[in-house]
């Protein structure tokens, strides 16, 4: 038996990430091994989780993962932990298609109790019907307790406690508003930047939460049998040399995707920002990230750009996702439209000027095979030369969308972030 629970909310912007980070750090400071998870395809929350808990956070996603693989991943990483905390995505029941892909679906599949974070800034006893609805909307979802956010006084909290007591759900405390614990945001969500001391913010959140949230009660009511985990059998390791871009410009990777690469051979990380050239490789993985924030460094690193282009021109195998695809193009423009030279292998020019958000789950069909992933970017691009487009792309509801997947020589590039941690067949496209 160990405490394991999912932190969810009725809607986005309820403060569940700040509370999650505070709890992760608070429990880590108690000397506990805390394993974080994140519902959905988010890359940035997992990085904050990892910093807070001093343990690598792992994505759980029922659109991109089968139920069996979801359970395997959860069991694999939660087995050695003392406490397991999963942060939900958006509102509890918000999925790509009704509840499909929602936090609620993951909670049900893994039999996790839900701690509901409610923004009660402008509410008192009226939280009762709100909480009642979340408690009774779906019989498979177990609301174990409620934390009230943006509540500044004990007298305000008393009204909220009354509501919980009348509903038969455990009140777990409240969190006053505080500018000191706000996590800075950026256009892809919460930020990762050297400009901010995230460790100090997370430490402050832990101290802030400890004053008014009953953490011991959370641990008590969330104890569940440990997830069953059967380790995978031995797999003969391949001999490929795999180069993975990994730095402040390219950092959007899934842990299980990297594990799949390690089964194929030796993985070597390198930095397109700082290193002089890419390492010798049989496969190059250019992940997404924030290349638009490092245009000067990327463009002036001409030896790196030349080495990547030479590798591509010689038929080297490449998987380029979103920011990685942008890097392989001719130019990448900043928010003012000023273009910076990139690798120049793909005949595309991308820019952040007049960018608009494009996001959603995607399923790609190529030669009868289907692959799942997601699209999330603000940049736009235009083709400057002939490029082969492969496959058809659909959204989560099965509607075809205009998102090109390019193939040139050994390069497959698109805005798509594919999850191949379960099957690995995207590596064979």
UniProtKB/TrEMBL annotation:
List required co-factors: Mg(2+)
Q: Where is this site: Increases nucleophilicity of active site Cys?
A: 417
Keywords of this entry: ATP-binding, Cobalamin biosynthesis, Glutamine amidotransferase, Ligase, Magnesium, Nucleotide-binding
Q: Name the catalytic site residues.
A: 322 (nucleophile)
CobQ/CobB/MinD/ParA nucleotide binding domain residues = 6-188
Q: Which domain of life is it from?
A: Bacteria
Q: Where is the CobB/CobQ-like glutamine amidotransferase domain?
A: 241-422
The protein's annotated catalytic reaction(s) are:
cob(II)yrinate + 2 L-glutamine + 2 ATP + 2 H2O = cob(II)yrinate a,c diamide + 2 L-glutamate + 2 ADP + 2 phosphate + 2 H(+)
Task: Extract the signal peptide range.
Answer: none
Q: What is the enzyme's main class? A: ligase
Which Gene Ontology BP annotations are present?
Answer: cobalamin biosynthetic process
Tell me its EC number(s), please: 6.3.5.11
- Supply one GO molecular-function term: ATP binding
Copy the pathway line from the protein's UniProt record. Answer: Cofactor biosynthesis; adenosylcobalamin biosynthesis; cob(II)yrinate a,c-diamide from sirohydrochlorin (anaerobic route): step 10/10
User: Which purpose does this protein serve, as stated in its record?
Assistant: Catalyzes the ATP-dependent amidation of the two carboxylate groups at positions a and c of cobyrinate, using either L-glutamine or ammonia as the nitrogen source.
Q: Which family does it belong to?
A: Belongs to the CobB/CbiA family.
Q: What else is known?
A: The a and c carboxylates of cobyrinate are activated for nucleophilic attack via formation of a phosphorylated intermediate by ATP. CbiA catalyzes first the amidation of the c-carboxylate, and then that of the a-carboxylate.
Q: Which PANTHER family match?
A: COBYRINATE A,C-DIAMIDE SYNTHASE
UniProt free text on domains? Comprises of two domains. The C-terminal domain contains the binding site for glutamine and catalyzes the hydrolysis of this substrate to glutamate and ammonia. The N-terminal domain is anticipated to bind ATP and cobyrinate and catalyzes the ultimate synthesis of the diamide product. The ammonia produced via the glutaminase domain is probably translocated to the adjacent domain via a molecular tunnel, where it reacts with an activated intermediate.
- Tell me which HAMAP family the record gives: CobB_CbiA (MF_00027)
Q: What is this protein called?
A: Cobyrinate a,c-diamide synthase
Native species: Chitinophaga agri
Name of the gene: cbiA
């Amino acid at each position: 038996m160990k405490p394991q629970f999912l932190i969810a909310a009725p809607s986005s912007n309820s403060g569940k990430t700040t509370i999650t980070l505070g709890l992760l750090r608070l429990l880590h400071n108690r000397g506990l091994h805390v394993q974080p998870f994140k519902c959905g395809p988010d890359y940035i929350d997992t990085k904050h989780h990892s910093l807070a808990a001093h343990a690598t956070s792992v994505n759980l996603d029922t659109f991109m993962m089968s139920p069996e693989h979801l359970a395997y991943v959860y069991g694999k990483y939660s087995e050695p932990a003392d406490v397991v905390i999963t942060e939900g995505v958006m509102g509890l029941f918000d999925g790509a298609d009704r509840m499909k892909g929602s936090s609620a679906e993951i909670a049900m599949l893994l039999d996790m109790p839900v701690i509901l974070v409610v923004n009660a800034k402008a509410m008192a006893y009226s939280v009762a019907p709100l909480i009642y609805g979340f408690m009774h909307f779906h019989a498979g979802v177990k609301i174990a307790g409620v934390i009230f956010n943006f509540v500044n006084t004990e007298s305000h909290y008393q009204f909220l406690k009354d509501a919980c007591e009348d509903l038969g759900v455990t009140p777990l405390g409240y969190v006053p508003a505080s500018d000191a614990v706000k996590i800075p945001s950026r256009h892809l969500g919460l930020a990762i930047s050297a400009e901010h001391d995230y460790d100090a913010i997370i430490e402050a959140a832990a101290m802030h939460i400890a004053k008014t949230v009953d953490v011991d009660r959370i641990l008590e009511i969330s104890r569940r049998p440990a997830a069953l985990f059967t380790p995978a059998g031995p797999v003969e390791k391949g001999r490929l040399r795999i180069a993975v871009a990994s730095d402040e410009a390219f950092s959007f990777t899934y842990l299980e995707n990297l594990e799949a690469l390690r089964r194929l051979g030796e993985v070597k990380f390198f930095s397109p920002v700082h290193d002089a050239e890419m390492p010798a490789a049989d496969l190059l993985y250019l992940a997404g990230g924030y290349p638009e924030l490092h245009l000067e460094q990327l463009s002036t690193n001409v030896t790196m750009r030349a080495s990547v282009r030479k590798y591509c021109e010689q038929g080297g195998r490449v998987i380029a996702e979103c920011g990685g695809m942008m890097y392989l193009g001719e130019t990448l423009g900043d928010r003012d439209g000023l273009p910076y030279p990139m690798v120049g292998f793909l005949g595309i020019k991308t820019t952040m000027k007049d960018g608009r958000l494009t996001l959603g789950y995607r399923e790609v069909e190529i030669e009868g095979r289907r692959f799942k992933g997601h699209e999330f970017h603000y940049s736009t691009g235009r083709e400057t030369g002939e490029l082969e487009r492969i496959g058809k792309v659909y959204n989560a509801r099965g509607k075809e969308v205009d998102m090109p997947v390019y193939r040139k020589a050994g390069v497959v590039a698109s805005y798509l972030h594919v999850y191949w941690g379960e099957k690995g067949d995207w590596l064979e496209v």
